[in-house]
Amino acid sequence: MYHNPVLLQTSIDGLNIRPDGIYVDVTFGGGGHSARILEQLNENGRLIAFDQDPDAARNTLQDSRFQFVPYNFCHLKKFLQYYQAYPVDAILADLGVSSFQFDTPERGFSHRFDGELDMRMNRNKGLSAAQIINEYPAQKLTDIFRQYGELPNARQIALHIDKARETPITTTTQLVDILTSLLPHNKENKTLSQIFQALRIEVNNELDVLRDFLSQTTDALKPGGRLAIISYHSLEDRLVKNFMKSGNFDGNIEKDFYGNPLTPFNIITKKAIVPEEREIVENPRARSAKLRIAEKRN
């Protein structure tokens, strides 16, 4: 299986689907969420799906109501306008790395396998993790590990890498071996996950892309349209929460002359929805997922 969708039915229910509506899945992956959306559409309904990973294109659905866009979701408005599907009734994003990506060693997303240190969602674009590890100054590596990995010993990690890269670091195993002596006892896997997360975010410019995408959703949605987003770490979740709450990324709600809040959304989920214990047992990668849903104001 390419990917076991997290919070599948809960997220689909949150879209409040009308059979003849227009829907967007901006993180197609294995197509699990998209297939469930299509099940609820009639012959007049439409689904647009985005995914920049060429591997995801192999999972496209053969359905006349379905359109696959092989690009990053930061291009949301441009392609919705191109396909005359603008505005839409709901947008879904599952921001996690797919099981297929994690479990394919040559993609370099996981410290559990020996593979090329890549981590690019689209392997045809941008710097790989190996280029970042070998070419970034130690101070820039420190900033990445501190900001994106939230690691208290970020500078120590960066300096250790800097010292070791007289020989090019090109594989995940090389990087793990270099870092082994710095890993806290009984927290080895957690710390490695934070380091790999930080590199992945930098490689794919994930937080800037997320900000760009979220900023487009207010125009892309019809009044009453739903926005449902599943995030997996605090940096993503904070951006999503603040944007849904206030329409900006600081979370500060502006008010009009009369003191009424000027916010683009009504919050549907007062608290983030998390997976039930049964789903976490069946799919351990669901344990950090948080689903937030908002509805565009009329």
Rounded to the nearest angstrom, the distance between the terminal CA atoms is 40 Å
Summed up, the domain count is 2
CATH-scheme architecture of the largest domain: 3-Layer(aba) Sandwich
Radius of gyration: 20 Å
What topology emerges from the helices and strands here?
Blueprint: H1 8-14, E1 22-25, H2 32-39, E2 46-50, E3 66-69, H3 76-82, E4 88-94, H4 99-103, H5 129-135, H6 138-148, H7 154-164, H8 172-179, H9 188-204, H10 206-220, E5 221-231, H11 234-246, E6 265-267, H12 277-282, E7 290-296
Parallel strand pairs: 1-2, 1-4, 2-3, 4-5
Antiparallel strand pairs: 5-7, 6-7
Quick gist of this model?
The chain is α/β, with parallel strands linked by helices and 298 residues long.
Overview of the structural elements:
It is a single chain. This protein has 298 residues and is an alpha/beta fold. The protein folds into 2 domains: 8-99 and 206-296, 3-Layer(aba) Sandwich (Rossmann fold); 108-204, Orthogonal Bundle (DNA polymerase, domain 1). It is built from 12 helices and 7 strands. It has helices at 8-14, 32-39, 76-82, 99-103, 129-135, 138-148, 154-164, 172-179, 188-204, 206-220, 234-246, 277-282; strands spanning 22-25, 46-50, 66-69, 88-94, 221-231, 265-267, 290-296. A 7-stranded mixed β-sheet has the order 3-2-1-4-5-7-6, sandwiched between helices. Helix 1 (8-14) packs across helix 2 (32-39) and helix 6 crosses helix 9 (188-204). The chain is globular, with a radius of gyration of 20 Å. The relative contact order is 0.14.
